[in-house]
Amino acid sequence: MEEQDDTEHPQEHRITTAELGPFCFARCSCGWRGPARRARSLARAEGQKHAMG
Ligand SMILES: [Zn+2]
User: Fold this and answer.
1) Which residues are in the CB-under-5-Å shell of ion ligand 1?
2) For the chain, which residues make up each domain, given as ranges?
3) pLDDT for 4-42, tens place per residue?
4) How far apart are CA 2 and CA 26, in angstroms?
5) Can you say whether residue 20 is alpha, beta or left, with left for phi > 0 and alpha for psi between -120 and 50 degrees?
């Protein structure tokens, strides 16, 4: 039986925002990606909403 316990918080959600042309969207370290928005603040808000739950 092998144990690998050196992974730190695999379920952590780290939100970053990326720009795509005139749009902006949120990305998460878990692989989630939010819809493209014109307002970066909105994209980030949606990302934080995802990260919370
Ligand atoms: Zn996530």
Assistant:
1) 13, 28, 30, 32
2) 15-52
3) 666 665 678 999 999 999 999 999 999 999 999 999 999
4) 36
5) beta
